[in-house]
């Protein structure tokens, strides 16, 4: 996958940053770097070009439109590179919230078929249909049955409609129950991932790209499939052997040109640094967050502290940033430096979220919001 960020006005002279994360399998680590680079530039397959909607300020996520069935039934799905199942609320759902679009009605689709029980799946109570169940870090969950139908990607897509397996949701809890979006489009590594299904069918190249419009603009674009890579593209690898997630290796963080005094090994946990388009805030180990917080607050002490947007969290917030007051900060990955800089009229806050879940135990989340535009650093 490749994720491209919109350049800031203060960094207009710099080339755009692109992080390619190519879907790969256990033997991918033996592929030569030149071949990996060449694969990013090669086409040969159509791609699914899709618009992104919503924004982080209002919704906390970005969605795309997916069309399932014959005739097509339309859904707004959160684009999530950290999960592997695409699902929508089923008409038979007994515990689903009120969402953006009507629930999926299998009986109204002439091309729908249930995924029958087999050795590769869990089965429902009468052993007739495969089921799925997913739990997320924010303590929400989704469960239902698996079905197969024609999936369409919109009028701008070069890719023709394809048959794909998806979840027909019968129960949801937590944020999934209360959110406006209908469901999730799983783009992660896994057998049920929409990306893996399309790649395995040989209908698209093995990469995808996202570009966010930001909080003040909203929307964006997503492409499923290969895109020509610019010749001067800066990139870093994702190790598929190490983690089921799209992970990269974070080396250090600089604030105002100075590196944080932290042991770089704290960034080298089980999964490394995970890129997750479905997570609103970024997460850092506590030691790194404290160092980052201290470095930033020492540079912006003239600024007025303000209350955070959510009283449930002890956010560290500032307002009234002028040019030269708030520091730039950088992140160093393997073969990559990421520069982000605050400019005049900037507002930003550090958001702290303690989590006791196995996935993120001992981590603290932080986010920097620039002129209403969140810079997501996963």
From TrEMBL:
Every Peptidase A1 domain range: 62-378
Gene Ontology terms for molecular function: aspartic-type endopeptidase activity
Any single GO BP term: proteolysis
The keyword Glycoprotein belongs to this UniProt entry's keyword annotation: yes
Domain of life according to the entry: Eukaryota
Protein keywords: Aspartyl protease, Glycoprotein, Hydrolase, Protease
Family of the protein in this entry: Belongs to the peptidase A1 family.
Name the UniProt record assigns to this protein: Peptidase A1 domain-containing protein
UniProt source species: Aegilops tauschii subsp. strangulata (Goatgrass)
């Amino acid at each position: 996958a490749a994720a491209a960020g919109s350049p800031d006005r203060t960094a207009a002279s710099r080339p755009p940053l692109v992080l390619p994360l190519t879907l790969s399998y256990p033997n991918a680590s033996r592929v030569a770097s030149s071949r990996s680079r060449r694969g990013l530039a090669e086409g040969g397959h159509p791609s699914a070009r899709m618009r992104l909607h919503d924004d982080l300020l209002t919704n906390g996520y970005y969605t795309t439109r997916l069309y399932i069935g014959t005739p097509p039934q339309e859904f707004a799905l959160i684009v999530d590179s950290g999960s592997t199942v695409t699902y929508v609320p089923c008409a038979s759902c007994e515990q689903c919230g009120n969402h953006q679009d009507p629930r999926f009605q299998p009986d109204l689709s002439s091309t729908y078929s249930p995924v029958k029980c087999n050795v590769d799946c869990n089965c429902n109570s009468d052993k007739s249909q495969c089921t799925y169940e997913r739990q997320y870090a924010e303590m929400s969950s989704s469960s239902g049955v698996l079905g197969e139908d024609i999936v369409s990607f919109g009028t701008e897509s070069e890719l023709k409609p394809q048959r794909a397996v998806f979840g027909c949701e019968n129960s949801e809890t937590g944020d999934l129950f209360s959110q406006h979006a209908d469901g999730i489009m799983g783009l992660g590594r896994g057998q049920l991932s929409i990306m893996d299904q399309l790649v395995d069918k040989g209908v698209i190249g093995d990469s995808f790209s996202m570009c966010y419009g930001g909080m003040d603009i909203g929307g964006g674009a997503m492409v499923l499939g290969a895109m020509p890579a610019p010749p001067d593209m800066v990139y870093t690898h994702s190790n598929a052997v190490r983690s089921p997630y799209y992970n990269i290796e974070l080396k250090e963080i600089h604030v105002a040109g100075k590196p944080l005094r932290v042991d770089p090994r704290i960034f080298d946990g089980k999964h490394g640094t995970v890129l997750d388009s479905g997570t609103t805030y970024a997460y850092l180990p506590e030691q790194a967050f404290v160092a980052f917080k201290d470095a930033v607050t020492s540079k912006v002490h003239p600024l007025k502290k303000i209350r955070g947007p959510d009283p449930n969290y002890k956010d560290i917030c500032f307002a009234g940033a002028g040019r030269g007051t708030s520091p730039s900060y950088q992140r160093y990955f393997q073969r990559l430096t990421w520069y982000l800089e605050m400019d005049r009229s900037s507002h930003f806050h550090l958001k702290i979220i303690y989590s006791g879940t196995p996935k993120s135990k001992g981590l603290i989340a932080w986010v920097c919001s620039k002129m209403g535009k969140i810079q997501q650093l996963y």
